[in-house]
Amino acid sequence: MVSVRAKGGYGFEILQAVVRAIRETLPELDIVALIERENRASIALFEKLGFFRECCAQSIASYVYVLNAGNTESL
How many structural domains are present in the chain? Predict the structure, then answer.
């Protein structure tokens, strides 16, 4: 699990680069992330990149965020 807590924008740049690399090699796949419910900074970061909250996985106290295949709005 990766926690994105950088304050200087590095988290955004890194995550954006990872999403871009996935899109270039496997554009047909949805990208799924598990984010702990209390991790507000990561939630905001993923939402900024176009991920949306799909559901909550109660057993692991995390939200499931998805970026659908074809969504390239923040790349």
Answer: 1
Q: In this structure, is residue 59 part of a structural domain?
A: yes
Burial environment of residue 15 by CB neighbours within 10 A (0 to 12, 13 to 18, 19 or more): buried
The predicted-structure confidence for 8-54, as pLDDT tens digits, reads as follows 678 999 999 999 999 999 999 999 999 999 999 999 999 999 999 99
Residue 32, domain extent: 10-67
Q: Closest Cα partner for 42 from 61, 65, 22?
A: 65
Determine, yes or no, domain membership for 39: yes
